[in-house]
Write a structure and sequence with these properties.
The strands form 2 sheets. The protein has a 6-stranded parallel sheet. A 3-stranded mixed sheet has the order 7-8-9. It is of the alpha/beta class and about 325 residues long. Helices cover about 50% and strands about 10% of the residues.
């Protein structure tokens, strides 16, 4: 009887296979922020084995208490994962994270999913780097905010091949209710950026409208009910109203804490402006929103507050849109 010595890569594959239940997977999750923490939790709740990484120790400890394995080295995380999901703040951090993983090595059968909001150009660059090493990379940014992340009702906008979309859809369904295949690599980000521009425009529009109504003497709750049963209805008016006391789950009820930060919407609108320039697309309202949120972010006072804080700044006469 002869004994066969397993190579490290074969041993990792064996361990990965033994540690999962039928239908479940080893999933790496990098970025456990306001949304990422909830998304990772929903994957655990769906029966997947989670391998997590974040610069925040408390964020990692929360997931560890729920059964996740914490890694300091993202390459080691990737080597022990069938699928790796990244949910990070901006282009620079996403690129740096993937370069670190690429330098450290990973398994060729791994699927990488970036759910951050970044430029389509970065998506295409990372897809080439990852595919050149034999693995797969798709973009799948999300919409639905912290509420959607917590309740597993996010919309995922996927850029990749039909086969890749079908391969990841069951995993994404543990975190979202709509998984849309938008086309080739980068098209998920294209959809996300357009959506976020619309969200920013409607948020400022609702902030202006509510402020004008209140200053005329209208009751804010009554007027919000009128909007939400009329043609002015939107996610910003109904679910995410910037006036405190209107929408039960809105960050405006918590002094604009948590949610989608002013810094992040300013970053996203900067990406929108670049894409619009590249495609020769006029976005007059988008550019004005970008200027407003860029100014708010640069002033620093509300950078970490939810972007609906624009209402509070507006009503106090401090909004800089020049």
């Amino acid at each position: 009887m002869s004994l066969r010595i397993l190579s490290p890569s074969m041993l990792q594959t064996l361990v990965r296979g033994m540690s999962t239940k039928a239908g479940s997977k080893n999933i790496g999750f990098i970025g456990l922020g306001n949304m990422g923490g909830f998304m990772a939790t929903n994957l655990i709740n769906a029966g997947h084995k989670l391998h997590v990484n974040d610069i925040s120790k408390p964020a990692c400890d929360k997931l560890k208490a729920k059964g996740a394995t914490v890694y300091e080295n993202t390459s080691e995380l990737a080597k022990n994962s069938d699928i790796v999901i990244t949910m990070l703040p901006n282009n620079a951090i996403v690129e740096c994270s993937y370069n670190s993983i690429i330098d450290g090595g990973f398994n060729k059968d791994t699927i990488f999913i970036d759910s951050s909001t970044v430029s389509p150009d970065l998506v295409r660059s990372l897809q080439k780097k990852i595919s050149d090493k034999g693995a797969r990379f798709i973009d799948a940014p999300v919409s639905g905010g912290v509420i959607g992340a917590e309740q597993a009702t996010l919309t995922f906008m996927v850029g990749g091949t039909e086969a890749e979309y079908n391969a990841v859809k069951p995993v994404l369904e543990a975190m979202g209710k709509r998984i849309a295949h938008c086309g080739v690599y980068g098209m998920g980000q294209a959809a996300k950026l357009c959506n976020n521009m619309c969200f920013a425009i409607t948020m400022i529009g609702i902030a202006e409208t509510m402020n004008l109504a209140i200053r005329q003497g209208l009751d804010p709750k009554l007027f919000a009910e009128i909007i939400n049963s009329s043609t002015g209805r939107s996610f910003s008016s109904e679910i995410y109203n910037p006036v405190p006391g209107i929408s039960p789950t809105s960050p405006s009820n918590r002094e604009y804490a948590g949610g989608f930060s002013t810094a992040l919407i300013a970053k996203d609108l900067g990406l929108v402006k670049n894409v619009a320039a590249d495609t020769n697309s006029p976005i007059p309202l988008g550019e004005l929103c970008q200027k407003i949120y860029s100014n708010l972010n640069q002033e620093g006072v509300v950078s970490n507050k939810d972007f609906s804080v624009v209402y509070d700044v507006l009503k106090n006469g401090k909004l800089n849109y020049q």
